[in-house]
Amino acid sequence: MDRRIDLIAVPSALGAPDGGVAGGPEALRKAGLLTAVHRCGRAAEWTCYLPPLPGGERWDGLTRLCGRLAGLVAESLAAGAQPLVVGGDHAIAAGTWRGVATASGGAIGLLWIDAHLDAHTRDDSPTDNPHGMPLALLLGEGDERLAGNLLA
Q1: Average per-residue pLDDT in the chain?
Q2: What pLDDT was estimated at residue 152?
Q3: Is 5 helix (H, G, I), strand (E, B) or coil?
Q4: φ, ψ for residue 28, nearest 5 deg
Q5: CB atoms inside a 10 Å sphere around CB 31
């Protein structure tokens, strides 16, 4: 039997240079993402809407958001579901994969396919935009609030 899909909306642009990407989850909801998943024969529901918490500086906000997201992803997996995280910018990958690693009890394997490497750190990024850093963070490099070597 196919696992239920938990759609987790994370309308964040904390890692991006502009806020437009925060509209991604709502645009996909309005476009019928849930209906499309159902048409594929899968049970699914929007289980969480996780916006960034107001206040604080960008990196602190991203740290809080990714921590909350990691918990939701781990809970979804522990319940036997398959989480589908819909962002926002891709800095949220740090929280998504941390949740997967937590649920699996250790390091994970990950095949990262992207048009960009996304392995910058704050030391070598020309923009200091966190959306260019999630792979480095997963490898334990970069901002210590988010970094953690989770890959086997």
Answers
A1: 89
A2: 47
A3: strand
A4: -70, -35
A5: 10
d(CA 83, CA 142): 26
Express each pLDDT in 55-76 by its tens digit.
788 888 999 999 999 999 999 9
Q: Tell me: the pLDDT tens digits for 99-150? A: 999 999 987 888 777 777 788 888 988 888 888 888 888 888 887 877 765 5
Give me the count of residues in the chain. Answer: 152
Q: Where are the domains of the chain?
A: 5-106
Burial class (CB in 10 A: 0-12, 13-18, 19+), 78: exposed
Which tokens go with 74? Answer: 């781990």
CA distance 91 to 113: 15
Q: Are 4 and 81 in contact (CB under 8 A)?
A: yes
* CB crowding 4-30: b at 16 or more within 10 Å, else e: bbbbbbbbbbbbbeeeebbebbeeeee
